[in-house]
Amino acid sequence: MPQGPSPLLELTQITKAFGGVEALRGIDFALSPGEIHGLVGENGAGKSTLMKIIAGVHSEFSGRFMLDGRETRFRSTRDARAAGIAMVHQELSVAPDLSVAENVFLGVQPTNRLGFVQWRLMAREAGEQLARFGIDVDPTARLGDLPIGLQQLIEIARVLFSGARIVILDEPTSALSPPEVERLFATLRRLRDAGTAIIFISHFIEDILNVSDTVTVFRNGRKVMDAAAGATTKAALIEAMIGKGREALEETYTHDVALPARSETPVVLEASGLSLARSLREVSFQARAGEVLGVYGFMGCGQLELARILFGKLKPDRGLLQVAGRTKAFGSTADARRAGIAFVPESRRAMLFHQEPVYKNVSISILDRISSLWLRPSHERDIAMRQVEQLQIRPTAVELDLGMLSGGNQQKVALAKWLTFPPRVLVLCEPTRGMDVGAKNDVIHIIRHLREQGLAIIVLSTEPETVLSLADRIIVLKRGAVVREFANEEISKDRLLEAA
Amino acid sequence: MVSGDSAAVHTSDRKGSKGIAALLRSQMRNIAPFLTLILLSAFFAIASPSFATIDNVGNILTQVSVTGIIAVGLTFVILCAEIDLSIASIANVTGIAVAYFTLQESYVNIANIPLPGWAAILLALSLCAVLGLVNAFGLTVIGIPSFIMTLAMMQIAAGISALLVRGQIAYKVPDLIATLGSASIGGIPWIVIVAALMLLAGHLVLTYTRFGRYVYMVGGNREAAEYSGLNVKLILGSVMVISAVCSGIGGMLGVAHFGSAQQNEFDTYLLDSIAAVVVGGTSLFGGRGGIGNTIVGLFVLGVLNNGLDHVNIDSFLKILIRGLILLAALVINVYAQRLRAKAVD
Questions:
Q1: Nearest residue, CB atoms, B1 vs list A343, A354, A439
Q2: Domain hosting residue A217, numbered range
Q3: On chain A, which terminus has fewer CB atoms closer than 10 Å, C or N?
Q4: In this predicted model, what pLDDT tens digit does every residue of A382-394 receive, in sequence order?
């Protein structure tokens, strides 16, 4: 571990809670100039929360925050920027309609004495900066016309060259091709040698080991490991991330889960060669009746796009979708619903009506089957009541606005919408994310029960536990392509993580 | 289930202790316009002896009829969180069209095409329906925001009006339209009856039909509607057509009511209709409100317009007062939305 005379940034006993739930518990974290510090941990381990504290997004926390040996507290991201801290977020935050040069100089365009933008100077300097980064691109081109990977590199370049002393990169490589990743790493090393401190967050552990000097592992809001990158291995990091004997009741999946033999039931949904811009490449798979197909991959691996293609929200550029043997080209989500496909997106807000009563949420997708021109509200309530009882939704008042229910119960309502008339295919994105153990188990039981009834279920998740606890067969997506299929074998969480 | 249950209990506790306050807050959208109506009526009743009379109530009803007919369709559009700026223009062109296909007196200098009354009415209705379909096409298929799409339609409809009348004024409309627009039955003007029936129909559709439910759901959360497998584009397209047809009917009856068909005759109805819907408490963000709110809004506007004529106020000041009342209603609309969101989250 490079031990500078005094660390640039030193955090001691940082604790942060969101509404009673502790996201960070007593974290110590130090960063020296000229260091690339890798950060790994599962979703929700607390990495992002800590980074948001450093970048001034969260100003309420307990613990000591020392910058340059002085106690500091940022009240806003503006304070953090003024202190030389810059962050590149996972989602692109570029202005696609502006030119490359304008994006590089966003907010700091060079102006002459009269306040007019010096366009030619700006274009020249932007070109030079990007060239140093190994990017050869016309600075006057519209940014949105460039490939996503290049856009992301340009955004990273902007932050790296903004003169920041501390740069935080959150999952910078998920949309980059291997040569682009190499280019990024070369630049990071050069900046490190010039004295910049860099925090590098990634799910790709090879990338972390490749570029970092130091690696810190987070688990459940605690720091569980601190090591020099040269002195550790991928296996050791994965073990630290997952934990050996995890406290709670939760199953840990450190040991093997046996996947059953390939089912011989009929194929209900078949995808062949689905491709979509840069998100998906030649994705093919089959989903069978009475089987749960798990689709696992890191954030940005193309899962969300895949799920939306299955439900007719996105149209694939190429590829074929067959439902029960018939080729389908969905024009709208209504077409997909009529073809027997049900969908629960990863965000409950995107599928539920929070200001409407529970029964209207339950009936919305089946109104055309339970009523004709006129609504039958009492019939709707009966149906909703039956679902509420079956899925043990609490409280049991179907007249209550949905927003009054807890997250786990809302997720059950999201499932209940589709269960009165069972669909052929149920597509579930992150079905248990952000739920407490009890609600999680309830949802897992519901899904297993539906499988017994013969539905083809596709579960897409970035959480290995979710996939392992539900799936009979697992495909792994990496950068938009299927890289591995697990069936009829023993599998553990680290093998799944390694495949992705 | 431990934390799930405790969260739910917590919420219901809060609801119990602050039940009435929460109810009032969540109903703010409906209470505020009603209070405004009562206060305004009381004010004018005291300020002017001629205001609170049976005759004047009849006047107010007649005065808001055309706006009311147009506002029925607009309520559907605003419930979907869209807007239709072409309503007044479409009303105008439909009114002109029905006159254009009717035999005019010889002194009217319009090269028109006289047809039987039913044909004229049918053609005029088709015209407004087609214009509504164009709005629907632009909004849903091409993806132009309704604000811009209907702004263009406002010009297009005005352009067609101009070409049809060429600066002239037509007077004759088919008998049916003339009766509905300007005659009375048992002392009640037909136009009031038509407006009441259309408002009633709008209310029934929105409250008791599947389509009405879809309108509310699409307005409440469009993304969720789409992920529930609703054909959102079809619903949005339909409300644009409904809005155009209601405007057309309002326009035809309006022409009969005013006794003439000419360019720019309906210009004030754009703002009046939007004001009636929004002042009544229908949310500009979609999903909340309804025809009941629109009716209250219509009366607020009607009482205000009529009452200001009964009290001695500078007629130029009236315009400003109307603007201020509209602003106040918009402020309440936005705040009601926020209070409601707080009450639920």
A1: A439
A2: 9-242
A3: N
A4: 999 999 998 888 7
